[in-house]
Amino acid sequence: MYASPPEIVHLVQREVRRTITVELERLARRAQLGVAEVDTVAESLARLSSVLVLDRIAAWQGDCRVVVDLFDLQTTSECEVGAMPKLTGGATVAEHKAATRDAMLDAFAVEFHGNGWEGVKLQTIAEKAGVARTAVYNYFPDKTALLMAWSEREMTRFIALAQRELADRREPLDRLQVLIKLVLIEFSLQRGVGESVASALSPKDREQFFTHIAPLVELVEELLRDGMEHGVFAEADPADTGRLVMACLEAQRSGLIAGGRSDAAVARTLPFILRALGAAPEDR
Fold it and tell me: What angle, rounded to 10 degrees, do the helices at 122-129 and 93-115 form?
């Protein structure tokens, strides 16, 4: 018997979990990471593992031999001659459209990180997402629209991660330190993304591209306001102070994108920001 679509999903999930466990254990033997760093690495590994199998799953389109090759399953005569049913994007039209859109954004991420902005081609996006090129235009008129949607999705994912990390923390200083570390780690994971892309966009598109950081700016301002109300940070305008904090973090982006170490960026940036806020760093 060949694997059914639900079994394939289970296999993908199992392989992702196994890969993450192995890599985290290997990393733990070489570096000392805090809880936030471990969770961030785990989530990044999960995303990377999914990306690595995306193109092969998308190219499957009913051919079970691709799945056999991907997971080293035993080949059967039924697999050689039979066609497996295609994976669907959901039980309803809305679910199918959402899944198709996500597949396009995942395919865009693969091309973006692998070939750079200039190397992104809608035809390749369509092939990796398992749809016709004309179908891509039903969702995204051009690759700039893909970039905007992907950037927004990444920020939504990051804010959700940050909110989970901050949920059980009450000290304003601790909360800000955690967020600063998460932002710098995230920058280090975004190879090929950021300033180099923004420079290739039109002024109007560049302005829109950077609006995706608005939720992060709002979160920074919220943490600053809370710290000022509790007397942890010096009194100042939270919005203006938040923009200055973001400028300090953005100054580290290009170096991290180029391969700089996130721990070194944290060591440079965190004490400076906290001193500017009238606070002292805590070792947490």
Answer: 130
CA distance 273 to 267: 11
Residue 143 CB coordination number (10 Å): 18
Copy the structure tokens of residue 220: 């920074």
Neighbours of 144 (CB within 10 A): 18
Question: Tens of pLDDT along 4-42?
Answer: 555 565 666 677 677 777 777 777 777 777 767 777 777
| Tens-digit pLDDT profile for residues 164-182 | 999 999 999 999 999 999 9
Which pair of tokens denotes residue 205? 């598109």
Q: Specify burial of residue 203 (Cβ count, 10 A radius: 0-12, 13-18, 19+).
A: exposed
- The verdict on pTM exceeding 0.70 is no
